[in-house]
Amino acid sequence: MIRISNIKIGIFENIDIKSACAKKIGVSYDDILSYNIFRRSLDARKKDNIHYVYVVDVNVKNEKRININRNKDLSLAPDMEYKFPKGECKIDKRPVVIGFGPAGMFSALLLAQMGLKPIVIERGQDVDKRTEAVNKFWKEGKLDKECNVQFGEGGAGTFSDGKLTTRIKDLRCRKVLQELERFGAPSEIMYEQKPHIGTDILKTVVKNLRNSIIELGGEIHFGRKVVDFLSENGSLTGVVLENGDIIECSDAVLSIGHSARDTFEKIYEKGIEMEQKPFAMGVRIEHPQSMIDFSQYGNAYKKLPTADYRLTYTTKKGRGVYTFCMCPGGTVVASSSESGMVVTNGMSEYARDKENANSALLVQIYPEDFGSDHTLAGMHMQRELEKKAFIYGGENYSAPVQTVGSFIKGYEDKEFGEVKNSYKPDVKFVNLENVLPEFIVEAMREALPEMGKRLKGFDRDDALMTAVETRSSSPVRILRDRETYESVNLKGLYPCGEGAGYAGGIVSASVDGIIVAEKIFNKYVE
Prior knowledge:
Blueprint: E1 2-10, H1 17-25, E2 32-43, E3 51-60, E4 74-76, E5 96-98, H2 102-113, E6 119-122, H3 127-140, H4 172-182, H5 199-215, E7 219-222, E8 226-232, E9 235-241, E10 246-248, E11 252-254, H6 261-270, E12 274-276, E13 279-288, H7 289-297, E14 312-314, E15 320-327, E16 331-334, E17 344-347, E18 356-365, H8 377-392, E19 399-403, H9 404-409, E20 427-429, H10 438-454, E21 464-469, E22 476-478, E23 493-495, H11 506-523
Parallel strand pairs: 5-6, 5-11, 6-7, 11-23, 19-20
Antiparallel strand pairs: 1-3, 1-4, 2-3, 8-9, 9-10, 12-22, 13-18, 13-21, 14-15, 15-18, 16-17, 19-21
């Protein structure tokens, strides 16, 4: 097949991909036997010339006669099909997968597809029971510490926007997208530049993925938590569950997510090597989605999908401030996993049709900011901010909020402007100086007006900031061998995904899970 790049079609034009391909190659319409959209992006840099840009793979009649060298936009379509490891795998004990977020799901799926029949241990519940627990927390402020936005089937990503953007260039990314589509995700995730699923559809996707693992001989145990690791001569021999059960194993995928703090403490206690790592903290910031749409697209916004944004700024002191996990047409959600702490995150459904846009507004945190050389000092710092947010929010899981105008000027609000909070169960006006460290306040105050210059209205006075956003990434990295991906001092344990410090989103975590599954398979190939 031939890959055609840089096909531009205006947003007010009739979209006729086949004709555009024929014109680009210089053949007749009927010479295009079939085509497949590989990528579609929206170029809105010039508001008077907004257009889609396509990359299309085409099957052309008498393809050999096409000289692809005469046009820089033509090339041979590469083979992007995922290739399973080859050989016969002789493994004595079934591998265990600890945690069923993106990394754990795809590690377990690949292990199952390769015939290794994994045993999955997930501390939270299946997605239906999990949804009940989460809704109860949002409505009544009653937290289930083992089943919430952070813990349960699908991981934290299930209650998010389901964004599938990634900066990694691994061919396994396509394997992830193909499987997600197969399990119920919209087909456009295969070609949109910024694909997303939405939390409503993700719930079905993760159930279908789980059922596929079971059909292939895998086991999935919900409401079970690993509390210890057994070893002999530096190699893993089993894992201990909270109820006292022991699962003997020689290989376990440690895909626990970034919020399994009790497991981090157990890992530290066991002497499994880990280290501090940079991460980021801040708030969620909300604006009217209509404002974001107009700022990005101008008068053409009604013709276009819900707009997003990504903003970065470096302060005069060299500290990075950036938006993260932007949720168009979404809500800010309560995401606590420990009692007496307030945590926020963002969530959108597939339609992205809610009134507000929200995003994390984060400030970079470095190990020197932790105030301690303890390996878990970053985690302790997260907890400190979450406890403050809980106290200042009224000690009932209401979240502290402040408008941007009041935050910049340093006084407490008395009423909302146009932007109303979407966070539940409730919010309380607070001067965020009382919640956030001085260096975070200082960095955000400097960044907000500058970001407003890049996205008109971003620093509007009534934009609403909800504290705190602390779980953007893991505060630790569990060290692993570069070649085998095993823990550097406990062979057979495979730190994996976002929680272990090796990924930053659904796709990259899933890819890391796939790689770990391949490593386990290849370890026992004869």
